[in-house]
Structures are given as structure tokens and as C-alpha cells.
UniProtKB/TrEMBL annotation:
The keyword Metal-binding applies. Its cofactor is [4Fe-4S] cluster. NCBIfam families: rSAM_link_UDG. This is Elp3/MiaA/NifB-like radical SAM core domain-containing protein. GO terms for molecular function: catalytic activity; iron-sulfur cluster binding; metal ion binding. Residues 59-286 form the Elp3/MiaA/NifB-like radical SAM core domain. Keywords: Iron, Iron-sulfur, Metal-binding, S-adenosyl-L-methionine. InterPro entries: Aldolase_TIM (IPR013785), DNA_rSAM_put (IPR023874), Elp3/MiaA/NifB-like_rSAM (IPR006638), Endo/Exo/Phosphatase_dom_1 (IPR051675), rSAM (IPR007197), rSAM_sf (IPR058240), RuvA_2-like (IPR010994). It comes from Sphingomonas mucosissima. The lineage of its organism: Bacteria, Pseudomonadati, Pseudomonadota, Alphaproteobacteria, Sphingomonadales.
Amino acid sequence: MAQLDVRQKLEILADAAKYDASCASSGTAKRNSRDGKGLGSTEGMGICHAYAPDGRCISLLKILLTNSCIFDCHYCINRKSSNVRRARFTAQEVVHLTLSFYRRNYIEGLFLSSGIIASPNYTMEQLVEVARSLREDHNFRGYIHLKTIPDADPELIHQAGLYADRMSINVELPTVSGLKRLAPEKDNRRIEGAMGGLKTSILDTRDAKKRYKSAPTFAPAGQSTQMIVGADAATDGDIVTKAATLYDRFELRRVYYSAFSPIPDASAVLPLQRPPLMREHRLYQSDWLMRFYGFEPKEVVAAADEATGMLPLDIDPKLAWALKFRSSFPVDVNRAPRELLLRVPGLGTKAVANILTSRRWRRLRLDDVARLTVSIAKIRPFIVAEDWRPVALADKAELKPLVAPRKQQLELFAA
């Protein structure tokens, strides 16, 4: 292999990292270097593709340590049998890049993953060394997200957690059968065992922090995972159920969904076309329903088509559920509890909070609700207000044409 300079390596390994979606930086501990000590922060304005809880954009240097791998997962462009150009950073090159990019105000943190080189333990040692050097040698206080290798020694994973803000282990595929078929060298039990170990370490450290201020932190931003959508035969119902199980068992901060993208020299067992990107979007909306709107997993699954198990692509899951269970509506905006208001299509968490606050002072009319929401047209069939009762709408056999978003022809040169 011809020797590559750092710029060429960066071009290859930054492009190779784009398939991993789980790089949000929300939830970490706040650190900064305003006292004149150290370098970097987890706060401030960013310029790139990860977002904090308050909506700020956080920029991350998102790269692989190497795109070489001893595994041969069918869906991975970096698999052993793939005909791609290979590159590899040293640990110190990643450290130098991170500090250089930070000093130029390009980034506020690092997202580092890697293919498996030599062995899981050797690869994990290199990842840990990057994080250790940044924290201890350079007093870097910015955000660090490390991808964890499930087969690595638990002690190495524990060391990584002492330096990283967030750690993640990808479950890869939503079903055990799909994992065996497309990634035979990976084992679901080992993956979930490593996730369970991370959960235990996070909870133990959190408990120690309550009793001893000097106790070290361990992955303060928690752990996340990612599932590939559309590479196997798993339905949306299977994916939603798997995600709910992972949230419940391992207290994950996030489950990310990545639509399968056809790769060069693809295996014959993979589909020829990628799934619609809207499918990925609907799964994220379903995830929000479970995390923020109080929906049970079985309720979200009920919104899917009974024959195919797929969520509709033309309407969001919340509207699909409401149309399927019209007996739950209309909801009185002046009397209904928060839990019922959150199930009204078109009402988000902020709108519901505004309704609950406003109705303490007066009975809400339809115009009042309209001022608290983005669009009243979608909401009207599902609510009762002081001057509104959807008698005619409630009697309609088919509500979908009235509340579904209208299809629009996009203009190529629209302003």
C-alpha cells in the first residue's frame, strides 16, 4: 500500500464514517476552559451535524481510526472482502487532528469509531489511547464519543468510559436471525452483554458520585446504539419492538436508525435498492412517541399496517394511530389530562404545555387553540373546545383525506 499523508487519510476515513448516524452530543456533563486551564468545551455554538438538547448545533470531528476490518459483514462497505481504498490513523494522528480542528474553531468534539484490526482488544486499546491522550496529555475538555467493540476485554471498555462522554455499541440489525445471516461473525448475546456491562458501570458510577464528590465519572452522556433499516426482512413493528426493549433493558439515551444504502460490490443476499428515507423518518417519529408522548410500544406497532407490519409513509405514526382508533377522540382541550392531549395529532409537547397553562385562566375556544399550534386544520377533527364540537367531521367514514398533508410538486428553482 502506498504511504498516505494525513490529509488523504482524513478524506478516506471521514467518508467511511458517514454511515454511522449515532453521533449526537446531547446529555453530557458541562465542561469548559474559561478558567484558562485546559482546552475545548462541550458548550458553545457549533457548525456541524450533532445537536444539544437546547437545539444548538454541535460540531464533531467524525472519523474512523481505520476502515480495515477482519470481519466480513455483508452490509458494511468496510468489510474484509470489500474492494475499497484502505487507510489507518495512528492514535497520535487522531489526537493532533482533533486539537488542530478545535483550534481552528471547526469542531467542539470527537466521534471516533473503527474497523476491527488485528483483534478487538488491540483496536479498543487504540481507541482508549486517543481518548486518554486528549484528556490527560492535553487536558481536552470537549466532547468525546467512542464506539465500543463488544468483544473487547471489559476492563478496556471500562477505561474508555472514564475518558469518553458517550459510548455506543451498535446492535446492527433488529432481529437475531438478520444478524446471523448478514453478520455471522457477530453475536447478539455478546453485543447485549457488553451493553449490559456499560449500563452497570454507568449506574454504579452515578451512585458513587452521590456519596463521594471525588468519584470518577463514567460516560456521563450515557450510551446509544444504531440499527440498520431495510437490509433484512425486519418490519417496522419488529424495529419498534426491538428499540423499546433496548430502552427498557439498557436505559439507552438514544436508538438511531440508519436506512440501508447499497454499497459497491454488494453481497447477493442484500436488497438491490435502499428503503425509502421516509421510512427512517417515520421510525424516528415512532421513537419520539415512545420517549416523549407516553405511547406504549404495542400502541405504536398498532399504527402499522396489519398485513405488512410497516408504518404508513404518507402520514406520521401519531396520525395513523388516531385514524385507526377514532373511538379515543374527540378530546376536550379544557378538561382532558396531559396524557390524552399528547395523543391529539398536531399537538406537540410545547403546544400541550401552553394549553394546560392557558386553560387555568379561561375556557379555550378554537381560535385560542389555533394561536397555540402551527395548524388548526389537522387538529379540529380530534378536539372539543368551548365553541367547537366536530359533529360533522366525527361522522365522516374517511377522515384521512381531510387531515393528511397534501402532496405538492416541488419547484426545482424555488427561492
